[in-house]
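dumping this here before i forget
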Amino acid sequence: MVTFLNKNKKIIFTVTVVVFVVAIFFGMGAIIGNISLGNAVAKVGSGRIPYERYQMQVRMAYDNIMKKQDLSENQDAVEKMVRQEVFKEMIVEELLYQEAKKMKMGVSNFEVALEIENTPMFFNNGRFDPRLYVSSIWTNYRMGPKEYEDWRKKERTAMKFKHFLYTEIKISPDDIKFYWDIMGSKSKELLKDKEKFVSQLKQEKFLDIANYYLRFLTTRVEIKDYRQKFERNAQS
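structure:
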C-alpha cells in the first residue's frame, strides 16, 4: 500500500487500485518480491543490490551524460565508466545504509510521503497526481509504489548517516594552520570569507575521513560482485 499521509485516504485508495491494475498487465509482483541472489548484481554483507535497480541507475546516469555533451564516438567507453561508477556508488550506499541501521537510524513513512508529494515530476496542474506518480515511477524506474518508497527510504537513511558523519567533524586551529601552510598565498584570498574557508576545510576533512571509513568497512564486510554472471547471460 502506498505510504502517504493519513489525511489522503482517497489518494491511497486510488493509487492502490491503479497499482493492482498495473501489476496484472506488467507482472510487477515478481519485481516487488524479495531480492534473492538470483537477481542480485552484488552482495554486501547481509544486503543485496538488485540487478534491475543497478541497470536503471546506469541507464539514467548514461542518459544524463549523453544529453550534456556529444560522446557518441565513445559510447562503449562512456558506458563502461558509468557502469563502474554506478556500481561503486551503490556499494557505498549499501555500506552506509547498514551502518545507519546499526545506529538505529531510520526514515519514517511520513518523510518519504513528503518527498513524494513535493516531487515536481509527479505534479499535474501544480498539484500532486497519484496516477501520474504510479505511471512515472513505472516508466522511469520499472518500480511499483512499495518498491519505490522502500528505495527512497533506503537512500534517505544512507544520506542521514552521511550527514551525521559530516556534523561530527570539527575544524580545529591546527587544521586551519595546516591548510594555511600548504595553500600559501591562496589562503589569504580564501580567508577574506572565513565562513566559506572553514566550510571548504570541513568538506576536505569529511572526504578524507569518509574515504578512510569506507576502506575500513570494506575490510570487515564481505562484498561479492555478480556482474559477470549477467554479462555472460546477455551475451549468450
